[in-house]
Amino acid sequence: MKRVVFNQKGGVGKSSITCNLAAIAASDGLRTLVVDLDAQGNSSHYLLGDAFEDALPDVADYFKQCLNARMTKNEPMDFVHSTDFENLYVIPASPELTDMQAKLESKHKIYKLRDLLNKLEDQFDWIFIDTAPALNFFTLSALIAVDTCLIPFDCDAFARNSLYMLEDIIDEIREDHNESLKVEGVIVNQFQARANLPNQIVEEIINDGQPVFPVYLSSSVKMRESHENFMPLIYLAPTHPLTQQYGELYKLLKR
Fold it and tell me: 182 has which bridge partners?
């Protein structure tokens, strides 16, 4: 199963959701890969810690060899790096991704990520892709390469508008590039159960027919601690309420 976690709106928790769901899958015995396509490298840093700086070759190196036919070719698994957590692997991002977009677009390399994942999917049970909060070359590549899309949603009016725009984008990609692409569900994140506005907005998008998962991820300082320790919640605080919410969400994805 190949999934992309994507929303054009920033600050909705894409990297946190990607890495924590991947970590729970890995802890459950699934061989799991995270592909980081965000030049900021948040998922890479979260899962690799300081080792991120020396994790080569990275995803930018893969795209470089796609652009240069004379370049020595690495094998697909060469780009995959192990983490300190059993069954959990990552293809790390690079700041170079930002400067590569125009050349990749001009050379029509939009399907190269799909080619890479097709060669890797027999090695992994689940593959998660983290993306930048933008509809750029790499995000489009991811949506073309995966089976499903998970949409983080952080309960404000701007997020609601972004959600409806994203529907149109996915419909277009499904029609032009990936007919099997589907939205697996909307993940409500940073939810404040006692506040009226989040409850109102979630109710509205459910009434609009959005496929909202019935497990809402709470806002918690524990997530910040998890990032600072480079340790997903299932390893840092396995009994914490937010960790349990992630566990319930994982069960829904596994069905």
Answer: 148
